[in-house]
Amino acid sequence: MKNEYEEYPLMDKVLQFFGGDIVIKTTGEKLKELREDKSTIDKKYTQANLEADTGISIQSIRAYETNKTIPESKNAKKLADFFRNYSRIIIK
C-alpha cells in the first residue's frame, strides 16, 4: 500500500519520528485534558473548580469542552494564563 505522504518526504520523516501517528486535538479536547491533568489521586479537578479559579462560567467551560463553541479572546487569555501558571508550578 502506498504511503499517503510519499510525495512529501519531510512529512513522512515527521510521522516516523512520532511513531506514525499525529493526533490533532480540538480546543475542547485539549482544555478537558489540561483540566483533568490537574486532578490528583485524592481530588478530581472539576469544571466547577476551573470556574472558581478563572471566573469563567461552568456553562461556558462545558460548551468549550464539548466543542459547541470556542472561547472568546478574553476567556481564551484567562485559560491560557491559568494553565501556563499551573504548568510553571508543576515543573518547578
Helix/strand layout:
Elements: H1 9-17, H2 27-37, H3 47-54, H4 58-65, H5 73-91
User: What is the helical fraction, as a range of percent?
Assistant: 55-70%
Shape: globular
CATH superfamily: lambda repressor-like DNA-binding domains
* Helix/sheet category: mainly alpha
Under CATH, the topology is which? 434 Repressor (Amino-terminal Domain)
**Hey, roughly how much beta strand do the residues contain?**
under 5%
Describe the structure.
The model is unreliable at 88-92 (pLDDT under 50). It contains five helices and no strands. By secondary structure, the protein is mostly helical. The termini are far apart. It is globular, with a radius of gyration of 17 Å. The protein has one domain (25-91): lambda repressor-like DNA-binding domains (434 Repressor (Amino-terminal Domain)), CATH 1.10.260. 60% of the residues lie in helices and 0% in strands.
Keywords summarizing the entry:
single chain; 92 residues; mainly alpha; 434 Repressor (Amino-terminal Domain); 5 helices; 0% strand; globular; disordered C terminus
